[in-house]
Amino acid sequence: MQPALRLVRTGRDGNRPLLPGPAPRPAAVPAPGGSPHRDRAGRVLSVEGLSLAFGGTVAFAEIDLAVGAGEIHAVIGPNGAGKSSLINAITGLYAPQAGRVRIGAESFARVPAGRLAALGVARTFQNLALFTGLSVRDNVLAGLAAARRAGLGAQILGLPSARREARAHRDAAEAVIGRLGLGAVADRPAGSLPYGLQKRVELGRALVARPRLLLLDEPMAGMTATEKAEMTGFIRAARETSGAAIVLIEHDIGVVMRLSDRVTVLDHGRRIATGTPAEVQADPAVIAAYLGLADGDADGDAAADADTGAAAA
Ligand SMILES: Nc1ncnc2c1ncn2[C@@H]1O[C@H](COP(=O)(O)OP(=O)(O)OP(=O)(O)O)[C@@H](O)[C@H]1O
Ligand SMILES: [Mg+2]
């Protein structure tokens, strides 16, 4: 019989449940091979043998990852496992020493960060990266800055093409603001909002350009259970409406179980498992990785964490 896995990991947003019992899966989970989400031709992101080290510190090594259109692929692992670095490499912020990143039909040794929007890639950051003094609306609009075609001259002169484009962008931003329930705060400075809403604004900025690849680095960190449930709904809706491939870094395993189609687990920069949430949950290497974390828990109180995890799960 499988032991009652009630451990939690401890991170910057406090205790979070690890490996809870099976959670209900959404009905829309695509069947392997039988859905356009998993169609090989529909693969949006392929990472092959990607490795990155900072001096003697290995951020990650020999990582393989494939994400299809419409798939929510979670990347999980203990603190320092290399999750954010992987996203930073996929988005060209970091230059990997080996391997390739394929986005759509194009393959790169280093993804050109300046072409992300053209490649249909958008992301959010683990630590909020909003223009705090700008309104929510302007922050969302900023997600379309790279999509602007009209030159500065056309904008200043108010040429019809520039006006049309500006109107289209405003409409797109309003639509996203509406979908994310941000209408009431659209004119407020983003920095004045509670943290959970700021995370939502950042999602809006990523969604407004209609990315085909969306990378979310801990979009629910520090959120209340209610905020997490709302954010889960927004991410699921984004997948349904856009068919984007979504890479989701998330520490709350309950959320991962409910939201993701597949999960890749990193530990000390290595990929130790990829599979469905149920598969990785039962994988001995994954359990060992987290048990190891619990043994060395910074709080030194794994038992108390386990109780919290049981309650939270
Ligand atoms: N810019 C950097 N310079 C030097 N080392 C870095 C840099 N970015 C990441 N690292 C190192 O790479 C390793 C992986 O870090 P990373 O931030 O990717 O982990 P993570 O899985 O996102 O962790 P967390 O769950 O805490 O966010 C760590 O050892 C980290 O210190
Ligand atoms: Mg991180």
Automatic annotation (TrEMBL):
PANTHER family named among the record's database cross-references: ABC TRANSPORTER ATP-BINDING PROTEIN (PTHR45772:SF1), CONSERVED COMPONENT OF ABC TRANSPORTER FOR NATURAL AMINO ACIDS-RELATED (PTHR45772)
Molecular-function GO terms, alphabetical: ATP binding
SUPFAM superfamilies: P-loop containing nucleoside triphosphate hydrolases
Ranges where the ABC transporter domain occurs: 45-293
Record's keyword annotation contains Transit peptide: no
Domain of life: Bacteria
Name of this protein: Branched-chain amino acid transport system ATP-binding protein
Keywords: ATP-binding, Nucleotide-binding, Transport
Record field: compositional bias (Pro residues): 19-29
Entries under SMART domains matching the protein: AAA
Region Disordered, annotated ranges: 1-40
